[in-house]
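Data availability (excerpt). The following record was deposited with the supplementary files.
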Amino acid sequence: MLIYIGFDDTDSKESPIGTGKLARWLNAELPDDCCCKGVIRQQLLVCPEIPYTSHNSSACFLAEIADPALMASVIEKAIDHLSKHAVAGSDPGLCVVAETDPYLSDLMEFGRCCTHTVMTQVQAIRAAGSAHLSGHGGTKDGIIGAAASVGLTASGWLGRYIEFDGLRNYPRMIRVSELNARHIAVISVDRDATAPAPQDMVLTNEWLRPRRMAHEPVLLVSLKEAGLWQNIYAKNKKKESNPSDQQP
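Predicted structure:
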């Protein structure tokens, strides 16, 4: 069974790790019969009415559990993980939802609203219904982004993978067939472009962060020359050196 574990508001401007990294670290804490299927960063509305650390992004950890009875243990582990790594002064929120939960469609709509509208804790609680949604410090506003990250990820067409099968260790150049073998689709964004062939090479820019499309990781590329494609995204160059401002 697939479950969604959403996190938000776990850091501060001075903290050494952001919410994305905290979500990725959860993998080391989960039970043996729980498998990571990726961690997805979701972008929420940025506006003066919403307090945020650097980008107002939240993160969702996708996990496959062998037995639905493990759900309670996963929630307990996630809460312990927050207590260890969320920094003082933050407003952490946690949302844990199974793919079979009847409120998942409400969370999807709530997540979409969070990309263009200021939403409230009351609305988040209502959208989550009987699913697990909890605040763990401060104002508890993190429940809004945590619920939104679950809904947006469950919709299958938003966000970017910040973890998936060791994608941070991929080489500068990799064959299309190797990406496909690791369950990453390679799609051209060029007008009238042909499909990347299995033997073609891809320049990764040493920053592979596939988009989430049709519930799967998809790497968007542009044709550089015959047989060679380039990842259309690269890591943003930052003016500040604050580690919490680094893009996951």
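Summary of structural features: The two ends are 27 Å apart (CA to CA).
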